[in-house]
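Hey all, sorry for the wall of text incoming. These are the two entities for the joint prediction.
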Amino acid sequence: MNFDVSEILETIKMSALENLDVRTVTAGISLFDCTTGSIDSTAKKIREKILKNASRIVPVADKIAKRYGVKIVNKRVSLTPLSLILAGDYGVEELIKAAQIIDETGREIGIDFIGGYSALVHKGITPFESVFIDSIPHVLASTDRLCSSVNVATTKSGINMDAVLRMGHAVKKAAELTADRQAIGCAKLVVFANIPEDNPFMAGALHGPGEGDCTINVGVSGPGVVHKAVKDLPLDADFEVLAETVKKVAFKITRMGELVGREVAKELGMSFGILDLSLAPTPAIGDSVADILEAMGLEVCGTHGTTAALALLNDAVKKGGAFASSFVGGLSGAFIPVSEDTTMEQRAADGHLTFDKLEAMTAVCSVGLDMIAIPGDTSAETIAAIIADEISIGVINSKTTAVRLLPVPGKKVGDEINMGGLLGRARIIPVHTKSAEIFVKRGGRIPAPIQSMKN
Amino acid sequence: MGIITEKIYFRKQIMDIKNKIENSVKAVINEELAASIHPDRLSSIIDKITDKLSHVVKPDELVLLNLKAKEQIASEMAVVSVIGEDSVGIVADVTRILAENSANIEGMSQAIVSGYFALILTINVAGMNISIDDLQVEMDQVAEKKNLKIYIQHENIFKTMNRI
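and here's what came out:
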């Protein structure tokens, strides 16, 4: 087969200059065969299963990356929600110990994050799940790699407001327990509505109960590539051209991701699950979703028109991806994690991109209020109210939404925090200060919306 | 080659194999037993053994096996892209390394793209006597010397990204 010079150069340019990469190769591992009568031996079995199946994930991913000249940035593992596996008559201390064993296993095999310290409590909380949620902040403070997610609502079951309030407190507690480390605990904790069972991206990755034994899910990125393509268009190119351009780039990125994912899965003897085509920004220059929106013609990301631009981007990315692969899953769209996107962080710090605008944007893109640093004195009830707002957007629109907030203790509006690496840095932005306490403390469940009755 | 002609071709090959087996078996049995056994009985044994052997694998299975084998040794292509400032001897250096390592060049194109020199080689890495990783190391040395970037990538990446 012969290739045009232009085709080859385009591919090389994408990976060498425009930050095209496979953001994560995540091995989903089912733990249902690891349950035993005691939490200690269960944790040991989990460790063994991870070692048995995923110990080669780093060298294999590196090998495939080399073969195709594409970077694979992160190698990760996602687990069956541990609240299902560790369930029993245990306390917080015992859960921390089990979590540390799993965390240590991640270090041994050289991965940066393990997802799955998770609970699915969208309809109700069992007594064990209650203890489990209490343990989350402590686990996040005493481990490095373990990530936690809690699903508090689905379109089918409505919003468990008891869980929402509990998570308001959990986020607050996680911040306090890691106050000396820029509230890093909160960066590993996501509250979800309609959580996907096969999302490869952290911190929300888990291996859903409906998944198979061992599966490779791949998260591809490429805001830089899309930005370059949009920037190269004439300023008067119409929306049809704009959408078409994004779609074509998304197609190519998706194809590349699927190729890499399938090869990694084959080498590891796992099945290939899904490809999550999400434009996930990183703090690297030129790897920004906000840059794409601005290249479409907005003076700054956050001004009027931002939601429409993001909607166009998100939809075109999905369409290109759906054409390229039959197994697109996870979140697939555009991410707007503020601290991880240099331009977006700048606009938020300058006051152009407000908290409320971010919330509106989440109605049309694939995640939610993500990596936003807010004042340390924000109350647990206010955080719960923010979660409730965001989660209701997901529930009503039958989509995934999520909240990952950093209420950094002692920090006020305008102060800066720096978490380093992919998590980036952020300045504290204001949230509304009037109380929603009475509302969030009502307790119970917000009923499932009428659109859930589809049967 | 069509499947019918391929089958005929393989049948001929099977006959060759049968003859070879027959000759080897003959040689061994002659060597071991010739002195102690009647010649007629000897040839009957040989006939029976070769007949059994040649039916171990049916012709159709052999055809399949052969197709499989062909798949495995089929060419595996990689694309070597050399990009950077133009200078004397780039093509010579790159192709010398490829020749030394038995990487056959199956396609070659060169262009000047916005002032930069770009050389694209399609090579067959199946018969290479070193790994792609080692080849990359050697190329990196040339790249450094001549202020270039040299990428070696498996062709599948270009196939999947550019072809439906």
